[in-house]
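Our platform keeps sequence and structure together, in a single record for each protein. Such a record has a labelled line for the sequence and another for the backbone structure tokens. The tokens are whole numbers drawn from a learned vocabulary of local backbone shapes. The remainder of this section carries one protein's record, kept here as part of the documentation:
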Amino acid sequence: MRSLSRKPIVALWARHIVHRDIAPKNIMIKPDGCAILIDLGGARHLDTTSITAAGMTFGTPGYFSPEQFRAERALTSASDVFTLAVVMLECLIGHHPTNLDQSQLASSPPSANVLVPGVGRELSQTIDQMLQLRAAFRPPADKLYITFQRLAN
């Protein structure tokens, strides 16, 4: 398998930029099979506000992290980690894991181990860690990069 590039989302996170709208509509697949994250119109540097207006969040409903759903101002890359896990689960099972039920996603995220039992223990555990309700318990970008690099080889 081809090795993963460090350029994509990890590069954004390393620069303290949160995409805020990781969803299937914002991921394009190149002919060589590489995924490209597009539409950085809603991306914000961590030093700036991370909500559009008081009480309103930016992004695609059904893909908000719990903290994004609550319209918290201090979003970090952990918010993108959560939404990336939702997209990964959707790819693995062929449909959105909560049928776009944002309330369920923000209060009781699905488990990769339950939805895709044959996916492999390490990938399943990684996705489940990415879906932790508390942002502080989600794996950091560098750890995810190493994990996915190992799984790809």
